[in-house]
UniProtKB/TrEMBL annotation:
This is Geranylgeranylglyceryl phosphate synthase. It comes from the Bacteria. Pfam families: PcrB (PF01884). Mg(2+) binds at D23, S52. Its cofactor is Mg(2+). Sn-glycerol 1-phosphate binds at Y172, L173, E174, A175, G176, S177, G178, G203, G204, G225, T226. Keywords: Lipid biosynthesis, Lipid metabolism, Magnesium, Metal-binding, Phospholipid biosynthesis, Phospholipid metabolism, Transferase. Belongs to the GGGP/HepGP synthase family. Group II subfamily.
Length: 240
């Protein structure tokens, strides 16, 4: 079984995918069984785990606890090498290709190798592109890089294509967690025109209409975190 092959076949069939992003730091372990029931009975297809924590055990504890409660693939979306947990199914091996900070282009990846060697994680090379959204996001602060301005569609499309040509298997357009504005739909459409690999879009998507618009514009997989954290009814809204 391969998480990436499943994403590829969904794309080929034009089946749209939805990942819930769970931040280990904000997770309430007491509610885990209700929470996973909600996930299992929804249109969610993937569970992403990641956040800004650098506490080694927190991510591992969460992944271990989730694993027996769901059949959905658990994919690490790490903010740091300390978030690598061997109990997950796969890891997005991110390279921040919108930025010019060597630490997040290659240095962290080198650091990760000695940890990955001791796991069976499926490693999915992913070009990560930060898009301006109206406010400074955590990723921007942590990585000390600037997002690409939201009107520069061709720069984003060329960056995504360069990622593909470098061998990335996924491109992730990120407006940032809690973004005021999601990635513009026109930008998703533009990027999609010349991209062959699956496109992930996330950041600031808070309702079902925005989710469907992102799919229609060309997102193959959408990532939503904040709406699940802040809106108790979001699971219900997705069913409508
Ligand atoms: C952040 O794209 C994800 O990395 C999800 O963002 O929390 O705004 O849904 P939200």
């Amino acid at each position: 079984m391969s998480v990436y092959n499943d994403i590829l076949s969904a794309k080929a069939k034009q089946d749209k995918l939805l990942a819930i992003l769970i931040d280990p730091d904000k997770f309430n372990f007491k509610l885990i069984s209700q929470f996973t029931d909600n996930i299992n009975n929804s249109i969610i297809t993937h569970i992403f785990v990641g956040g800004s924590t650098v506490e080694v055990e927190v991510t591992q504890k969460l992944v271990k606890a989730l694993k027996p409660l769901t059949r959905l693939p658990i994919i690490l979306f790490p903010g740091d090498v300390t978030q690598i947990s061997q109990d997950a199914d796969a890891i997005l091996f991110l390279s921040l290709i919108s930025g010019r900070n060597p630490k997040y282009l290659i240095e962290k990846q080198i650091e990760a190798v000695s940890i990955l060697k001791h796991t069976n994680l499926e490693v999915i090379p992913t070009g990560y592109i930060l898009i301006e959204n109206g406010k400074e996001t955590a990723v921007q602060k942590v990585t000390n890089t600037l997002p690409i301005p939201s009107m520069l569609h061709s720069l984003v499309a060329d960056t995504a294509k360069a990622g593909e040509l470098l061998g990335k298997k996924l491109i992730y357009l990120e407006a940032g967690s809690g973004a005021l504005q999601p990635v513009p739909l026109a930008m998703i459409k533009f990027v999609k025109q010349d991209l062959k690999i699956p496109l992930i879009v996330g950041g600031g998507i808070r309702n079902k209409t925005q989710l469907q618009e992102a799919y229609k514009a060309g997102a193959d997989l959408v990532v939503i975190g904040t709406a699940f954290e802040q809106n108790q009814d979001f699971f219900e809204e997705l069913k409508l």
